[in-house]
Amino acid sequence: MRMGALHKWAIAAFLALGTAPALADQLVTDLSEHKIAIRSNFTGTQILLFGAVEANTPGERALDRDVIVVVTGPSRAMTVRRKARIAGIWVNHDSLVFPRVPSYYAVASTRPLEVTAGIDILKREQIGIDNVDLGTPKAQAMDGREEILPPDDEASFIKALIRNKKREKLFISDPGGVTFLGQTLFRATVDIPANVPVGLYTATVFLLRDGQVVDAIASPLYIDKSGLERFIYRLAHAQPLFYGLVAVLGAALAGWLASALLRER
Amino acid sequence: MQIYLPIAELPVNVLVILAMGAAVGFLSGMFGVGGGFLMTPLLIFLGIPPAVAVGTQSTQVVASSVTGALAHWQRGSIDFKMGGVLLAGGVLGSLSGIFIFRLLTRLGQIDLAISLIYVVFLTIIGTLMMTESLRAMRAAARGTPLPASRGGQHSWMHGLPFKMRFRRSKLYISVIPPILVGYFVGMLSAIMGVGGGFIMVPAMIYLLRMPTSVVIGTSLFQIVFVTALTGVMHSVENQAVDMVLGLLLVIGGVVGAQYGVRAAMRLKGEHLRALLALIVLLMGLRLGWDLVTTPPDLFSISDLAPHS
After folding, report:
1. pTM score > 0.90 for this model?
2. Residue of B1, B3, B4 to mutate, interface with A, max A Cβ within 10 Å
3. Helix B14-31 and helix B269-292: axis angle, to 10°?
4. Which of A41, A235, B73, B197 is 20 to 30 A from B308 (CA-CA)?
């Protein structure tokens, strides 16, 4: 979906190049790491995105120039539930299922997003947490039947989704997080929290000029469990029966060991 | 020192988990209870997902009940026939508990259900134990021993069919009540991640009228197999058993239980029971408080349940 948008943009850029090739600035970027391994001592990390803007118009000072960095994790369906008080007890009541929520979304930019580009451009490129396409939500009443929520109610669910994701540090917005070192070099650090979901991530750097996207580069970032962590996780999901038997027999063995040690005392 | 839990998918402090395991192990050694009903809520307070807390806790109960059951086996204080009947009910109960767990997870009500069941049971058990131990303490102060209260005979129980002779328990009763007791405890084990001794032991004494000498051993025998089944089922159904977390809990629990047994020797029985009752009541109050106070955020998010 993102790649599709980029692809379309690439064609547009190519066409634009044909008309005014001399004016297009170009990006060169890289990531400090392309693979993050979650081991037993993993407590979160940071990735560094850096790069340079190669100006093809050397004489010209680019004043209205912005760099935006977006890191997204694999999308999955999420359920947002709203509690209501029933007989004095808080109970999960209505719920809304969003079909495509990025499990992780971080955006950093040179200036606040509102001043970098128009909302239509931000929406098209899905830049900014509020501009991510979450798919068409489906509402459910407490008894599991589908219902239709009024639009402002739906908006409060979307706000709640973003608020909860931000609290889990899985949605991050850092206006001013991209800093220029001199005229061409820029860098941004993005926090990867300890509870980060595994999967294929995409780090995209956008170059904007006068509110228009002039270049974008996407690079992959793999986050995966590693070592014993990976082995246990894989086993639990691929061979759940075997895993359960091993866990239970291991526990029984530990109990037997303890009783054997006790008897010796 | 932090360690990343592969199934719960979050890092926890090793020392905190070991200390919790030791504290609950201490209490279980002191009071002779499994301690599952204390550990599961503690794990949930720590932020471990309820499914993982319940699934993992069941493996910890396997370990501690194996230790206890072996000791009773050596002493010959297990009624295997009665244990088998309780186990038959327990297996059915555990399977239906797993089914209910899955259904509630899909409906988004599992957290509420676990909390509610805990509040109800902790409050009832805590109150019963507290009044009983206070009465015992008052009687001890007056110097009059409490008459062994044995209520009226359960005549309805003797009219039930499918009678069976349990030699070790010196009983000739219908198998229906023990199967029902086993079923109920098995269901609780699957939903709450407990062994269920705190329900089964009183039921065996007051309902089935088993001699106290074989009650604990027989209940531990049943708990070993029912929680083992529960652990396997939670692995298969929800992939919710975290081996790393389970190992830490078992280590802490084994160490804590040693000191608990020793500490118990220095305290009077009724004081011990009053103390346990107090802990149980406080736990129930804390969980109940969370249910009725307005939560800081009315909205919560979760990945879609894997089975829906």
Report:
1. no
2. B4
3. 130
4. A235
